[in-house]
Amino acid sequence: MKKNLIVGQSGGPSAAINATLAGVIAAAQRDERIGTVYGSRHGIEGVIHDMVIDLTDFRELEKLKSTPAMALGSCRCKLPQDFDAPVYQFIDTTFQKYNVGYFLYIGGNDSMDTVDKLSRFYADRMDAPMIIGLPKTIDNDLAGTDHTPGYGSAAKYLAVTMNELIRDTAIYAIKSVTIVEVMGRHAGWLTLAAALPKLLGGQKPDIVAIPEVPFSESFFIDQIREKMKTTDNIVVAVSEGIRDERGEYIGSSAKSGAVDNFGHVYLSGVGKHLEVLVKNKIGCKVRSIELNLMQRCSSHLGSLVDIEESFSIGEFGVQAALAGESGKMATIKRNGDQPYSISMDTVKVTDVANREQLVPSKWFNLEDKKVQGEICRYILPLIQGDIPKFQNAYGLNDYVIF
Amino acid sequence: MKKNLIVGQSGGPSAAINATLAGVIAAAQRDERIGTVYGSRHGIEGVIHDMVIDLTDFRELEKLKSTPAMALGSCRCKLPQDFDAPVYQFIDTTFQKYNVGYFLYIGGNDSMDTVDKLSRFYADRMDAPMIIGLPKTIDNDLAGTDHTPGYGSAAKYLAVTMNELIRDTAIYAIKSVTIVEVMGRHAGWLTLAAALPKLLGGQKPDIVAIPEVPFSESFFIDQIREKMKTTDNIVVAVSEGIRDERGEYIGSSAKSGAVDNFGHVYLSGVGKHLEVLVKNKIGCKVRSIELNLMQRCSSHLGSLVDIEESFSIGEFGVQAALAGESGKMATIKRNGDQPYSISMDTVKVTDVANREQLVPSKWFNLEDKKVQGEICRYILPLIQGDIPKFQNAYGLNDYVIF
Prior knowledge:
The structure is a homodimer. The first copy, chain A, is of the alpha/beta class. Chain A is about 35% helix and about 20% strand. The first copy, chain A, contains 15 helices and eleven strands. Chain A has helices spanning about 15-30, 45-50, 60-65, 85-95, 110-120, 150-170, 190-195, 195-200, 215-225, 250-255, 270-280, 295, 305-320, 350, 370-380; strands spanning about 5-10, 35-40, 50-55, 100-105, 130-135, 175-180, 205-210, 235-240, 285-290, 330-335, 340-350. In chain A, β1, α1 (about 15-30) and β2 (about 35-40) form a beta-alpha-beta unit. Chain A starts with a strand and ends in a 23-residue tail after the last helix. The interface between A and B is large, with 70 and 69 residues.
């Protein structure tokens, strides 16, 4: 008897998560063992509250591949530890109502926690659906995989944008500091991508700071003073989550100290904090730039390698579910760099959920030529190629909206 | 006897100003009446301090066309009113040293002031070089021209990025407000480009605020409350230079009120100010995004129409100088929209220097279908087509660096 499939998306957006959705839909549509292909609105919440749409006849797969953010919507929902909680009954009711044999969930760390809990909830059930997690995060911090779908496109955005910002900040013959704040609460992978112009043998960004390396404000100011002896326009790439030696987030004290007209605190980021610090200690022209949501949703700069891998891992996940795998996350294994090639596999989601993959300490010294080479060999294959553009009659980017 | 040419760039960067430089170089290189083609470093300062480079044999014109910011460097130098000031003698000395017959200056309002003053300084001199201003500003606020080179590429960046941000902000089923701050101290042209997804018949951005229309904070909050009845995720496009009915910049009081740990004021923009306002008055999730330098230097999203026009106006300026015109600014005249066609002309720089072209009042009501149509007819032809990519061996954007 045919079983049906539900796919959902969760966590933060990327330029590639809809490519994985497209891969799931494509593989499910063409396999005779699968009946109806459902999409769950807002991740697991769509299953809980019975908000699903029928994608069995959806045909705009190519356009979906280059649509940023979650076409199905997302959620930030953490399932309870207690499997007797009513929410699990709601989920089970929906799965039974739609005769679901396969549940695919695309997301990052928190989403894999959902996959893990659902798998354990269904562990002893004969009618359990096959539950597969598909990795997605621009942060590249998921364990058990060489890299995560979504990272390549964000990395490409960061490298290209940093290259442009370096040109922009170089025009005036005066001393200046430009601080570029990059996403990454715990892992520095995205900031390493922003550092590519330097890692490829250039001078800039002059200073790179990632969360894995304790940050000292006084050393930072010393570095700027030193570098200003030989260059006018200092460019800094900094992860939003840098911390001092005690593990305190840089700027966290300023956050509680700064107040506006209403007496409310300014929730400014580390970039603004360092801007004020430089202004204060050095007094030169200084500017901070927060790359904000653009670094995760700029699908016009999507990496073809990333988008195609993201699509493939969606297809792969469906195959794994059809083969009877459950409680697993699909992963990417790198077979080689020259030429770059990958294969896909699965790992037990219990082994990866709630674990983080950080930048290894052997890569901390970005001035080391060997380290530069290794990081470039890791990142460069992931940012290659451009995705096809879909444009409407006005010449503007055109997206799938469910 | 052959005369030589100096070209310089001034003011703020754009994705197209190097295309105009390329046009000047191309036209000068192929005309037998011109000897050496010089580039002045950092605008007029390179002439004042004798910092020029020889571009006669420069060949990477196509790559230069897609290089963002000023390849020659820029300056923010205002020449004095007093023509007896020594700086004019320095300029004259350099012009004589290099046997300069033609001086081309690419820039915005302030740069045209330089062209105007230099022209008047040389007004009665038999050996005066021909002095031509070439318009450039992403702000599109120069008088005497249908639009300015550089605006089309920035407009394209804003429309594409807003389209992506709208997708990103739509994923969660919770009430939220996203405020996107766009450049434009006095004119709303760039914010109108960010509003294109709405002007083309969409719903978002939900609220658009430009400097030409007095802004009321209480009306703004009322608008958000009203719109939240029918939509979850409010998106706002706002010019950095919006003012209240008395002409005070919105958020200027907050700027003097907010202090950090050191007791220093936070120089946050209007986006952050409105973020705090919404947080305070409505209390929902709210985020502000400053598109910052990216909107002026993202040459990877350059408009082909803009880049080609920018190149052509550079060529045109050289022809005008060779024809004996001086004290003029080159301008673009729109001959038609369907098909879009332009021609070029010159105006006396005195008539345009220090004047601003604002968004006309007949275009203030963005809810009016007729107004939407007129603005789209104005902007859309300027953002068409993609510029060729220049990539190095690593697949990254590759630029000319003098």
